[in-house]
Amino acid sequence: MKKYIKPADIILTAVFLAAAIAVYFLMYKNTAPDSIRITTPDGTTVVYPLGTDVTVAIVSSDYDLSNIPADAQIITTTATSGCCNIITIKDGAARMEYSTCANQVCIESGDLTRAGQTSICLPNRVSVEVAGEGGYDAITR
Ligand SMILES: [Zn+2]
Questions:
Q1: pLDDT at position 30, please?
Q2: Dist. CA 85–CA 124, nearest whole Å
Q3: CATH number, domain at 107?
Q4: Can you tell me whether residue 124 is helix, strand or coil?
Q5: Residue 34 Cα, ligand 1 centroid: separation in angstroms?
Q6: What's the pLDDT at 27?
Q7: Which of 42, 44, 69, 119 is the most buried if burial means most Cβ atoms within 10 Å?
Q8: Whole domain around residue 63: which residue ranges?
Q9: What is the pTM of this model?
């Protein structure tokens, strides 16, 4: 077995490294987050500028509104009976604050701050995503 490194190996390694670096920069290029897009069970998307501090409650038409913070914006949707998702946008971060869903996966997403980050509540059909300038919007439209 030969133990020296062949020139082809060096070229291959260099090409691989260059590709890895290119991918790194493509993935982490600074896409500035500029808005929060909330998709409701109706399939409509509500967009809030990232600078807004707001609490949004996505509720089914029969949901008891006394459970919702008084300052929240309430969006009544065709959500399944008894469904409610509360999303807060504050200090440049969005988070799924409260959800009536059983699995609570959406809550575990925590703070969303970077463009492309998403919290999806599959049971309640609500999603929150951080949108930014650049090519990202083209994917969702
Ligand atoms: Zn959920």
A1: 62
A2: 8
A3: 2.60.320.10
A4: coil
A5: 24
A6: 65
A7: 119
A8: 33-140
A9: 0.74
Residue 5 lies in a domain: no
Q: In angstroms, what is the span from residue 78 Cα to ligand 1's centroid?
A: 16
Give the pairing of strands 73-77 and 54-60: parallel
Q: Is 21 inside any structural domain?
A: no
Residue 3 inside a domain? The answer is: no
CA distances, 90 to each of 95, 98, 99, 102, 126 (Å): 9, 15, 18, 25, 19
CA of 9 relative to ligand 1 center, distance in Å: 49
**How many residues would you count in the chain?**
141
What residues does the ion ligand 1 have nearby, CB within 5 Å?
A: 99, 101, 106, 121
**What is the number of domains present in the chain?**
1
In a domain, residue 4? The reply is: no
Predicted confidence (pLDDT) at residue 117 exceeds the cutoff of 80: yes
CA of 44 to the centre of ligand 1 (A): 18
The rounded mean pLDDT for the chain is: 89
Token pair 């987050």: residue: 33
Report CA-CA distances (Å) from 94 to 9, 39, 83, 115, 121: 47, 13, 20, 11, 14
